[in-house]
Amino acid sequence: MWVRTTEKKYGIAICNFDGENVEHGLKLEIGQAVHIIEETEDKSWLRGCAIKRKDQLGIFPSNTIHIKKCIVENDGRYETVLPAEDPIGREVTSVLREWDMILKNAYVVGNTRDFSILQLLMEKLMELRLELISGLLTQEQTRELKKEITGRIDQGNNQLELDLVPRIGGEMVAGDACNIYQLYKIHLRSSEDTKYMSSGTALEGMQTILSHHIYFNMKNFGCALAGEEADVYFTLYNASNQTYFSERYLAKINKQGVSNNVEMIGKQSTIFCDLGNQDLLKDIYLACHIVRIGRMNPNPSTTLGRGPKDYRRPFGVGVLSLSDLLTADNSSSNEKEKPIKITLVNTNTDNDFSTLHETLITPGKSSKSLPTSTTNLGVIIEMRMLHGELEQLKIEKPLLFKQNVSITRKLGFADVIMPGDVRNDLYVVLDRAIFDRGGKTAGKNVEVTVCVIDRSNMRKMPCICLGDGEKPVEEYKSVVYRHTNQPRWNEIIKLMIPIDKFNDTHIRFEFRHCSGNRANNMRKLFGMSFVKLMKGDGTTLHDGPHELYVYTLPDKLRNCTDHNRFENPSAYLVLPFSTTDTANKSINAQNNSNYPRSPREFFHIQTTICSTKLTQNVNLLDLLRWKKNPNTVIDTLRRLSKVGGQDIVRILQDVLDTLFSILDDNPEKYADLVFKGLIYIIGVLRDSRFKSFTTVLDTYIERHFSGALAHKYLLSYLQRVTENLRIDHDYASSAFSSFHFLFKFCIRSRILYEQTTGGKGDGRFVSDVRSLFSSIKDFMKRDEDYVRKAQSTLLENCYIVFIELQKLLSALDVSTLMMETIESVPQSSGLTGVKLKCLSQAIKGKLFTDSSSRSYILPLSLGILSSLIKGEQELRICLSIVGDILASYKDLTLTEYESNEIQLIVNALIGILLNTLLHIQKDQTVGPNAPGSPSIVSLCTSCFICLLKLMKEGHYEFLISSMAHDLEKLCGFLLRLFCVFEHLVTMDIFSKDWMVMKMALNIVILSSTQYFCQPLHTYLIDAVQNEPHSKDSQSIYETPHDEGVRSRIISHCIEVWNRFFKFASCFLTQPCLQLETFTVEKRSKIQDKYGDLREPMAFHAVSMWDKLGSTKAEFKSKTSLFLGVTLVPGSELRKAVLPIISDIMDCEFQSKGNFSQLEDDLSDKLDQFVVQERKGDNNYRDLFESVLMQQSKGKDWEEKGVHLIGKIAQLLERLIDYRNVVSINNEDKRFMKISCIYNLMNFLYQDRSKRDTWARHIYRLHELHLRKDEHTEAAFTLLELAKTYNWSDNLIPEDSYGRFPQQKERERKEILYNKILVHLDKGQVWECGIPLCKELADLYENKLYNYKKLSTILKTQADFFTKILDVKRLPPIYFLVEFFGKSFPAIKRNKCFIFRGNPCDKVANILQSLQADFPNAQPLSFKADDSIKNGQAQYISVRQVNVTASENSRFKGHNVPHEITLFYQGNEVNEFFYDRPFQKGVEDKSMPMKSMWLDRITLKTTFRLPGVLKWAEVTQIITGEKISPLKIAVETMKKTSAELELLNYNAKTYGVVEPLTMKLSGVVQAQVSGGITVYRDIFLTESYAEDNPDDDDIIQELKNLIEDQFRILSECIIVHSRLIDDTLRPLHDEFKRQLLELKRSIQHDTSSPGPLPERKESLNRLGIKNEDRSNKSKSVFHTPETQALRNMARRTSTPVIPMREPNTRLIPKSYKRGPVSPRKNSDPGLMIGQDALSGIGTSDSSSTSSSSIPHTRDSGSSSSLDINNSTFYRSSIISNVSNRSSSDGDTFPSIPPPLPKRGGSRPNSGTGSTSSGSRSDSPIPETDPPAVPPRKVNEAPPPLPRKISSSNLSRRSGEMPVITRETLPTTHENPVPSRPVDSGIYSGSETSLKDIGEIQITVPSNEELNGLLSVQIPVGGTAEPEVPPKRTPPPVPSRPKRTSDHSQ
């Protein structure tokens, strides 16, 4: 039995639970939080859900959960639980979870900046959270830690552009916890705080704090003092002006290096207090001076080391910059230990001790090396910033002040001197002195003793303070410097002298010479100085430097060591102490013989007095002593205005007390002057320098003011000033500036008076106040210009007066006075802003919280505000006042009286706010105070939404009913309302990170929409349906003659409905409600707090649509709105809204009878929504189709509707596929992008109305092609667009993409043609461009008669023709690509495609490019079965295929050059094939080729390639064609012969002999699975002819091919002999020998045509077996010739890879047999030249050698052979081949025409390279060879080659040399003498004429040639030739040395 839990609501999983073995089990992981709903009666099982997966309910054991305390919200069905921990701790947890996802994403995308920042923030946040939950912190530390945590959270959110968290005092504020306007202000404040924290400028946030302090604690003293004591002084030092600005804090250290007081060890702390805001901007350092107390020299071995032990000697100095500390915030994080590095003082030159800190701060100031302590650790300190008043800090931080913390004050006054703060400190700085040497060589060791002498009792006063907490002493001894007569001490001494002793006190400075090596008289007194503290006029000694005289002492005192034995001070006090005091002394006094003055000796000090009782100003002193001179009071009061502000604020309390005591003494006589004095003093405090002292004045009034009768005189004087303004309006303006302070004095005086009289006042005060304000109202009504300033000043200070009046008058009386004063200001006075400020202060104050005063203030305020807002005057302050009014109400706890006030506000402001908001949203005025500025728009929005939230149901009903009688007015209001709502949800009114504010806005809009939609169907639906109202409601139709009004109202009603639907659509699609775009953590927060706000709005919109009934047809134009709503994620929402589309379809069909317009609208909008706005998914497509199909059942338009729905569903599928892969900045998924665009284009092309959209995708496809330089495909893409235009003069509009302006149709087509021609030229597809050139030429010649353009296009056409013949193009390679697996997109799933690759592409290249689109796809190397096709895994199969060249009817019967036909053998094709070898019958191990057949698969594609795409889908696969071994042999012979002819031509033309050498090795030395001998033994036997009688024609063809190949081989041998050098000569000789042996074997078989068995027996009798022959054949590869060939292959730069199968045919189908006769005027060695490129194959003993060439489909065979065995490949270079022509009636290719001579120009040519592919069925190809770029058409040919060495053969050159006719001698010419060549190897370098040298040509004998050219083929069997003995080749000659002469 399950029961609902009441206590167990929240828990954490403490172990894993898989839930698989339990029905309805919930899977849990350790640490997962769960929400518990129910439990069993035995409490062993629980039921609930995971916090992150609330939609999955399940059960789990109770022992797997640790129950935690929690907070339950919304108890019941929709309850949520939160852990009952600190809110800050919960927030940290939530933030860390959200940041964790962002951190992972930043790592994945490689965003190192965000990753680093976020990583540091998260680490710090986790540390702080751990510290927070530890429970070991005090309340103060916890409070500061929370503040730091929230600051870091806000800082991180700001940097990551996450949502702003509104806070009050560090605590989060929920959107429903406060008023909307208050929430807006909180957001503003939080945003400013976040910016302040992110900027790192702490001072901006500290401006409101006037006092700052530095907490200091010395943790450890780590300097070794050799058993001596020390005084360590710490002082704040201003490096900017090089002065100290604080007292010195003294830390005494004993001989053990710790504090003298055991309790103070580690706690020697102080607070440097009273730092102002300006001090924080200074360059502040902490200076540390260490003074040791001991002997003169610490070394006991010296004489000075055995003297007295109480000398104060310098030890070391250290400094520490406080710039980081001063800018740190008020948190515990800045409380860190920092070391101060101590620089030791040089014991020999220690006079720089006082200035050493300056040197340390500015190291460049002194070039001397500064010694540092290598064994000491320095001084370890701890510092921390404190902000605020010191007394308040003592309350807030009691633990800090319980540690015996001393107070170290600032040198000078603080920025604020509060009344009651009594201070009387005198600071004396011992600066420097100048002493006479006195005839001695060394300087003195001077010690200064400072004492304060009381003249009254002739005793020293114990008033010298060494530090706070230290007992005052009578004497202070300075530091002693050795041997210097000009010492600088720079020591600060604080003297605390009682005020009553100042007049009779002086300071005496005694100078002694200290000796460290005498037993007696160690300190010798030799002089003294003194200074008096008071002047003769009673003022104190002025601040600043003083130069004191040094007096020599009487003889009896010179050797005195007892300081107290000085004679009577009156003896020297008559003397002047300085130059300023000389004038006050008589000459006799100056010439006192007892104390003679040394004229060359001076002593300099600086004094600073900080006293709140003493003054240095004579005028102030006279004022304070006014009772002693009553006759001079008037003059003294008049001189008060001449006293500086600095002197006044120091003794402000005494000055004010004096003024009021004078006023009380004789008010009739002194009132006027006292009043002016008060105004002057208050004016001083208004100065920016003393603005902080205004609080001091307030404190004085409240606590220290005692003038009980002052109000009588002040009120009358104020009234007199107001009434007599014309006399002195400037003075009146000053008086009004002080008006609020003067009134405070009046109120306080009246209160004191009533307290004195026991509340029995005279009653005149109220009448005096009313009389005063009556005068003020009259004054405010005045319109003279000269009173404007005074009026403004008075109004600015008026509200403070009203606050003070509340202490004595009732709230209603005060509010009456205030509103009468405000209303007295005329609108034309220009004082509106000041008046509103006064009103704003009143609204924010206590007056508005009182119900009686609010009832009086509110109506008057609304009247003022409504008129100003309506006129858009002072909008910012007006709206702020409205917001303050609304913020005073609590929307959840409105009383009836408050509800009536809300109704009053609604009536007065809602219409005005609505109109204002509508207007300012459209205002484009620039400026912070412009009506359309973002701040004012957001302010107005917050006020309007706040008012809507405060409105209850009764308010809405009253508002609507007030307009119900006038439908036109109601329509106007609702129209404006929905328009504003629409703007609010679509415009960025608030910052994008104000998510809480936006959600609060949406909630209010949603709730208010429920009320404002009621009049739509209550009042407006009848107007839309054109039906009269009910009798109960007022009807406009009762007057039939008002047809115009009726039509206008109907139009307005329809417009309101349209606006509502548009607003609802905008609300549902606004970004802040799209939860699917948020992180999981953010989405969970919003759903828990607010739910999905889209659902209620969607259901409400649907219900409103349903209420339209028969009038839905009026709104069918809103298809796009509802379509956009259906795309909002959420199945329930979509199901609810999709029927609206069905209703629109019904309306469309009923009105038009078709869906053509609707289809266009749906297509256009879906393209926008799905592609551009990235909305919709496959689930939406399925739901769209299913719901609308269901809705269409039974309708009249069912058939047409089903067709439309299916068509739109197909469009959706293609748009979604396209959207999922298209990204502007993403180069991945290129294959899918192009495929999706192409499919979409094909779909749109079917409908001509979609041509505009179709053209947009044409442009996109064109751009994608150009990104990869696919110019051919780009040209065909634009050609598709060009085909849609005609050569007409019709004007066509500008396209929607800005690519073409409005122009004639032929002009646009002409532009497209020109672009296409450029792309075709770059893609080298000139054949496709020639028809376009002809078309343009016809246009220019026969229609436009533009011969200029005609000449240009004809030149282009001619250039294309020239390039076709001259530029050598490599044929493309085609690949079959198959996609297997259900996880592929539908457009690729289990489909086959033919890819058009580049000439050098390999299977690996294609596979790699496809895996960029499908990274999870695996290469497939075997045939796919159904499990692979239907599985989820992705497989891609790639293989190379051959081309079935298309027959061109134009070329039939013509001798067409190969350059022309070659193009069509690899282009404009749509049929391809590949072969699979298989064994048929019993395999003959000795001759496997005998039973090897080929299975040929033919493929046909949808369109020809090249085309719009680089691939085409395979539409037809033809299988079953079998190729016999004999046909394979025929095809192989054709290929081999064609390759030999081509390589022979290249060798003769370019001198490229390497490929020819390798090919000859593969053909002549072919011993395994190929070659003429193998074909002879298999096919040219009687037994084969008898067994295969149908193959006679093919056998004869094979014989002819063998005969022709011998001829070609002979020609190749001749050319090869001419081009090689001596290095390859042995290999060449081996070729000739083997060719002769091959010929002899054929001839031997002809002479012995016995049957095959007989030949076998004869061979057996000779002892030669097949195995022996095979072995001997293999032995060829171990000869030195073969090794030389391998070395040559290694030297080449092209890697050895398997050879691909070429796709083109290079020889004619048939030709005449017979001997070859050389043409006239031609070289006999220059025979065939083929315009193609093929691979060169060589074979070794372990591989099969075979070559493949382009082939021709004969009648008996239409295929070529795949290369199934690995071959060596060496890429060759293609150049010019002259047109073949036929003469003498033969069909042999003709000899090329004469080539140009050396140095001359030759026809344009291009070079290129090709590569071979792997086996056709192998998915993994070998490494690609490097591509050789073709030479440009107009580029000059390379120079002629010289003799080619073996090293030169290995060089790769982009430009190969050309052999001219002059360089090739005929058979009767003498060979060209050889020249020295460069035998070095230049791999990959350009081959030049100097590097190659002349070609050494060797011509074979005529007999040898004749023998080679005449070969007979036997008819029957053949006999095995005799194996020649093994020959040893000659040694390879060494490389010739380079010579310096390379000239021709």
Question: Would you kindly provide a written description of the structure presented here, covering whatever features stand out?
Answer:
The protein has 1944 residues and is α+β, with helices and mostly antiparallel strands. 43% of the residues lie in helices and 14% in strands. The protein is built from 64 helices and 40 strands. Strands 1, 2, 3, 4, 5 and 6 form a 6-stranded antiparallel sheet that branches. Strands 12, 13, 14, 16, 17 and 19 form a 6-stranded antiparallel sheet that branches. Helix 20 (729-737) packs parallel to helix 23. The longest helix has 28 residues, at 1592-1619. The chain is extended, with a radius of gyration of 54 Å. It starts with a strand and ends in a 35-residue tail after the last helix. Residues 201-207, 1028-1041 and 1646-1944 have low confidence and may be disordered.
Structural descriptors:
6-stranded antiparallel beta sheet, 1944 residues, 14% strand, alpha+beta, 43% helix
What is the CA-atom radius of gyration, in angstroms? 54 Å
Percentage of residues in DSSP E strands: 5-15%
Low-confidence stretches: 201-207, 1028-1041, 1646-1944
Largest sheet: 6 strands, antiparallel
